[in-house]
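Supplementary Note 3. Input sequence used for the single-chain structure prediction.
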Amino acid sequence: MSAATLAYAPQTRTTPDPCKCARTFNLQVEQGATLSSQITLTLDGVPVDVTGAKFQFTAKLDPNDSDSAPTTVKVDWFETTVPTQGITWLVLPAAATLTMQLAAYSYQIRMVSVSGVVTPLVKGTLTIVQPVSSRST
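The predicted structure, written as discrete structure tokens, is reproduced below.
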């Protein structure tokens, strides 16, 4: 299992600029392995309560591909473990990475609040690499 921590702490602004919200993090995972990354959300050092928020991960070989393209990977989830602490986890299952090409994907993670506000959190490159061994046990 591959683990990484992604921290997101937006600046307080009078006029929000959605283009500057997302932080860039580049990730790498072996084909057929599980990618597990903790995402911590804070605002001015205080954890953001993400109770009821939906998180959306999308990865594409070409960012211009549609969300319905066969090579687009999508994972949606709701945080249920520690939402009041501003912590959630992106888990990209081994079954998903197994079918992904050995290539660099453009990805993004967005949060959709209970009231429907969509906030870009993280973006970057997810590189799928060849494992040295394909043993799973």
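The longest helix spans residues 94-98. The domain at 2-9+22-129 is CATH 2.60.40.3350 (Immunoglobulin-like).
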